[in-house]
Amino acid sequence: MKLGFLVDLGLCIGCKACEVVCKSENVVPLSMWRLRVKYVDSGVFPEVKRAFTPLRCNHCESAPCARVCPVSALHYLDNGIVNVDKNRCIGCAACVLACPYGAIYIDPETNTADKCTFCAHRVEAGLAPSCVVICPTEANIFGDLDDPTSRISQYIASHRDTRVRKPEKGTMPKHFYVGAGDIHLNPLASTRAEGFNLFNEIGHLNHVGGH
Question: What architecture (CATH level 2) is domain 3-59+76-85+116-210?
Fold first, then answer.
């Protein structure tokens, strides 16, 4: 079994219910996050649009965090989940620096590493991750990548636009996106659009109004 995650960005409405339930389920400190929904704006006013990109640990097959951890606190479970053993963690933050996705943080209350674990405790009990359960549009899909009949495997097979973040890093992420453009997955792909200056526009309207 090799568990993976997929988000259909065409279904995500940016409600952030997954963010909230993740914090509640995993007792994540307010200043930190295991799961974050990034807002991505594009276009030039008034022709603008907003898309959403949920970001979490990618549970890489070749995880830099697991390789660099000196005490094996970051380790693989038999189902492929990259888990964190807080009892072993010494808080050195090597994993934080090694992760190319910015998915790991040091818990300020325990001084140990933490991140998304695909709700490993729920999976062990036969339950789906909390973010999958809470999603009102069923944009989150979780399952066994080794099973060709699983929903996630069939979803990937039927969507040629399935992508991962930073494939050039060679980490082989097990977190996939459908319907993602470059601006969703690559922060450097967004450019500052010229042609509209809010302050100039306000000044122009005030000038017209004064006449």
Answer: 2-Layer Sandwich (3.30)
